[in-house]
Amino acid sequence: MIFHDTIVALSTPSGEGAIGVIRLSGANAFEIINRHVNDTNEKLSFGRFRIGEDVLDEVIVCRFASPKSYTGEDVCEISFHGSSYILNRAMESLIESGARLAEPGEFTQRAFLNGKMDLSQAEAVADLIASESAAEHKLAMHQMRGGFSKEIKTLREELIHFASLIELELDFGEEDVEFAQRSDLKALIEKIQSYVQNLIESFRFGNAIKQGVPVAIIGKPNAGKSTLLNALLNDDKAIVSDIAGTTRDSIEDITTINGIKFRFIDTAGIRETSDEIEAMGVERSYAKMKQAAIVIYLFDSRDEQSEHLKIIEDLKGQISAETALITVANKSDISVSSIKADLKIAAKSGHGLNELRQLLSNQLKLTHTQSDTVVTNTRHLQALKATHAALRKAFEGIETGLSGDLLASDIRESLHHLGSITGEITTEDLLGNIFGKFCIGK
What we know:
Elements: E1 7-10, E2 19-25, H1 29-34, E3 44-51, E4 54-64, E5 75-81, H2 84-96, E6 100-101, H3 106-113, H4 119-130, H5 134-144, H6 147-171, H7 182-211, E7 213-218, H8 225-233, E8 251-257, E9 260-266, H9 276-291, E10 294-300, H10 305-318, E11 324-330, E12 343-344, H11 353-363, H12 378-399, H13 404-422, H14 428-435
Parallel strand pairs: 1-6, 7-9, 7-10, 10-11, 11-12
Antiparallel strand pairs: 1-2, 2-5, 3-4, 4-5, 8-9
């Protein structure tokens, strides 16, 4: 796609370091930069950035000729000294020379429209920029390198083959011929459905990595939940008191353990109470517990085992089978007890916290490697669910002897939803919504 205008953006905001980078992309990028820097088309050059006869700064210019650039167009990147005055004045002069200020995400949008990446890879760029942990970075890099895209394209190609055969049958409707073997099509649909279902199920893992694995700390009042939260966060986030019922609402914060972002939730102590406000806190504790991927049931190691066994059984009945439950006996430094638990700790002194951190990482079952595909994007999840539903209709249609035209319609619908993931099917509204969330300069 040819764009006749040249866009410019400050890729490194002023005031953040010793270097500021301004990027231009478009058909006139080289011409515009050559009005300000030594007229040369070398890939990398040192020169003086001039505005008229005045030298603004000494700069380094990198030139990337089309199509071997990020956007697929001629691209220039100019490295200035990081003065806010220099960068702002340079931006003004480049705009006066014919460039225009880039919209949010416009560089990546041009890369997509010029075929340098597909839509899921473009979205991965935003995820990469926003990544705050090693696990987030790993998933974003895998998607940006096209791992997800290749698998989606392979599925589409297999479906397109059968769809074309069914469409061909429609041209010979009066002759009652069958080019697409229904048994082979059923087998293909079952295979694709199974794969799509695995992708759908991976979203729980992927979303947890992206948003922070939700961990609810549950227990009776004065079990040490707030002390544990503060210790895990290494911060006095929650008020700690010997008075029972101090925490009356959930408190949340995020920390990283072994490269994975965890979102810890301290909750009100669970007990029967006549205090209306505390009762609301207890109710919220159960609600947070049901939303968590991991539940830590924390209890005082000095308590009776039978009491906690009853509470644990109750908790198991309220959480899903996919939610991990870890039982942790606290205050083990002041009590020698035979009480059973997954782990014994002393939250106040920090004893056992490293073991708890490792146990949390293990519960996530990080069996994914760089070759595995994990869905992290809600838009992709919805498209995969719609694909699965359309394939189910096609499979049922084959079993009931559905006519070829209706069967072809169901397959086309599944192709449409798969294509929307990689951008083979797009609308202006969709692109605007995706790239509008990017930062300017990317």
